[in-house]
Hints:
Blueprint: E1 20-29, E2 38-47, E3 59-63, H1 72-76, H2 79-89, E4 97-100, H3 113-135, H4 146-151, E5 156-161, H5 163-174, E6 182-186, H6 196-212, E7 219-225, H7 231-244, E8 254-259, H8 266-279
Parallel strand pairs: 3-4, 3-5, 5-6, 6-7, 7-8
Antiparallel strand pairs: 1-2, 2-4
Amino acid sequence: MDYIYEMPEAMLCDTPCHGEVRRLAYDTKTYDGADDHVLHKGAWVYLPYGYDGGKRYNVLYLLHGAGVNEDWWFKMFPDTVKILDNMVAGKICEPCIIVTPTYYRGEEKDREAEYMAEHFCYELRRDLIPAVESAFSTWAGGDVSEENLVQTRSHRAIAGLSLGSMTTYRAGLYKNFDLFSWYGMFSGCCGPNGNREEEVGRIKKALMDMEERSLALDYLFCCNGDKDVAYAEHRDVMERVEKLCPQLVRGENYDFFTIPGAVHDMKAWQLHLYHALQIFFVGK
């Protein structure tokens, strides 16, 4: 596809074709072993204009960054909804359901970031996806058994920004690759103090495991601004991975998109989402 470096003005204009943002409440657990306890959580769900319960929709699970919550994409930045509405109305992307959860647990925001990024995999698999895909019309068809969720993985994507990008790698690609075939990593992989060599190995293993199970990778879309604090580590890790992993073919199922001059901010992340939605679910 042809990348652009500024959001088109038309994407920020009013449109009569409004999607709907609904609140979804669900129960989950901490999955901390002996200290396990029940949590009552919620996520926001974007339903595209014309949502029809008689049709089946692809689903994108979209994560926020550090220190905020599920309100980030749609409530703190409501122009995200306007961009989505305009993309659907202009047929720039296929109508899809977009879910914005949080990997945090209320008052536990100060727990080690890497623990949250890793540990969200259990809630994502066992509680969030089943709650969403039994409540809304997706390709799972209301059957949220693990077997069916694996069979419908090509209709499911996960993406996130900053710490949400790390979570996309860790809770999505490394731990739940059998549930997703589309990935969007916006600004970062292992953080500035992360072990890059270890991260390369984890990505390589996930891609090999996916291949061994005959599970296709539809697309892995990495993005950064070249002035972003996360750019150097993200680029370095993915350059190494691309050299080591024949499963990644640039332009076919992988790319690393760089915005010249862009930093670690919402302007860049919304543009990453704009591009990702033109890649995800194409042909599905």
